[in-house]
Amino acid sequence: MIVCAAYSHELPKYGIKCGMTNYAAAYCTGLLLARRLHNKFSLDKVYEGQVEVTGDEYNVEDLYKKAHAAIRENPVHEKKPPREVKKKRWNRAKLSVEQRKDRIAQKKASFLRAQEKVAADN
Known about the structure:
One of its GO terms (biological process) is ribosomal large subunit assembly. Residues 73-92 are annotated as: Disordered. This is 60S ribosomal L5 isoform X1. GO terms for molecular function: 5S rRNA binding; structural constituent of ribosome. By secondary structure, the protein is mostly helical. The protein folds into two domains: 8-73, no CATH class; 94-122. 46% of the residues lie in helices and 0% in strands. The longest helix is centred in the last third of the chain and has 25 residues, at 97-121. The model has no long low-confidence stretch (mean pLDDT 87).
């Protein structure tokens, strides 16, 4: 039974625009999942978690501090509205009997005109 879910492609909403598959993104995704779970069971005030973010070594501390703050502020997943999808037709629509007969008549007329033109040129 799945209680809640979080994915790394949701991280741009929280300020992380790159590195969706690195360790830090995995950590942020885990944090997002944990915050959602705590929020769902009203435990987000009881379990505050790691408040101090340290990322000095790679000069990304500010980026992840902002992301962690944004995740703590609003961990809820927002559903996107359904898109209006226009159905694309990959093959041609079938012609009706009248359309097929008309098409054949046009081809015959075109062929006869071409034959008359050739006969007139000779």
